[in-house]
Amino acid sequence: METIVFKELAGPSAQAEEVKDEYHEGSSRDGSTLLEQQPRHSDHHVTAHLVTDLSFWVAVLFVVGSGVWITNGFFLFLPLVNIGTDNAAAVGWSAFVGGVLFEVGTYMLYVDALNAERKNHETKDSVPSDSQDDAAEKALRRRNTKFRWIGFGSWHDLYFLACFVQLWAITIFCVCTITGLPGVIPGFPDEPPTAITDTLYWTPQVVGAAGFVLSSLLFMLDAQQKWWLPNLLSVRWHVGFWNFVGAVGFTLGGALGYASALSTGVEYQSVLSALWGSWAFLVGSVFQLWRSI
């Protein structure tokens, strides 16, 4: 009889303890480590999960957006090595599309961060209840954590801070994708007014990309157990790292852009920095897509 009672007590409650032990702050955005990732659903359940999973669509938008930025980089780079001709319209519009995709993706990432607590409750509520009181508590918790499209999260949460910084960074960066469209700045990109170009094109690129550097560092720190020790086995850490590399490339591209009209060598390095930065963003986005799946 004692054995039977022990097994009954060790059923749902033991599962709850197991989930509690595996759960940690940030688990809603940290799929698994590279060594621990295992399939948990059937193909049907995975498909249904991905359709409603914001993190999956964030990753898709960043993968597509990175591809657009790579295309934009080749539009700029190939004429510098005497392959093809300049196409200002293609450069401007591809940058605009890439910026929009990154903006939408970052906003969805921010929304996902706002609802991290709600997602964590849903994860813990999936454990079977062993009493009516537990079921009532879970129902109340779900009602009190409604889905939010706007608002603020905890300022003590590194993940939320990273998303907040990145949202502002990409919004500032998108200014240069608008001013880079054909006809917005007179004479751009051949002989535009220097003051206007520096103020409305290069500066938003530098400031926005620098914001991406900061947000990527915050994402990496959030994925680490210790602030000084890189978590090389975490997929989420690699997402932050490769986005950091990409952001450095975009920052250098903008910083060198101030003098690109004065030197073909500087222009070459500016374009090349943005190109390898785009490839780094693609690597980080693929890691992010893999984690969400």
TrEMBL record:
Transmembrane regions: 54-78, 90-110, 158-181, 201-221, 241-259, 271-290
Biased composition, class Basic and acidic residues, residue ranges: 17-28
Region (Disordered): 17-39
Name of the protein described by the UniProt record: Integral membrane protein
Signal peptide segment: none
Alphabetized UniProt keyword annotations: Membrane, Transmembrane, Transmembrane helix
